[in-house]
Design brief:
The chain has strands spanning about 10-15, 20-25, 30-35, 40-50, 55-60, 65. It is mostly beta strands.
Length: about 70
């Protein structure tokens, strides 16, 4: 994976259209959103807040949440 450092509260936008397949929290990622697009998935971790819901269909540029501190 690739970590892209952002300041706390910076909007995190989707880089590939798809469907939200999972939202959760882990010790290593904090809050995260997993987006399925065809045969691939993108996981956005390190979020302080989440702006989407499980099952939402989203497009490139959709704000999926806000960054936490990496």
């Amino acid at each position: 994976g690739v970590d892209i450092p952002k300041g706390f509260g910076t909007e995190v936008c989707c880089v590939k259209s798809g469907t939200v397949s999972e939202i959760g929290t882990t010790g290593s990622y904090g809050a995260y959103v997993r987006i399925k697009s065809g045969k691939s998935e993108v996981l956005y971790g390190g979020l302080s807040s989440v702006n989407v819901s499980d099952g939402d269909t989203i497009t490139i540029g959709t704000v999926i949440g806000k960054a936490s501190v990496l």
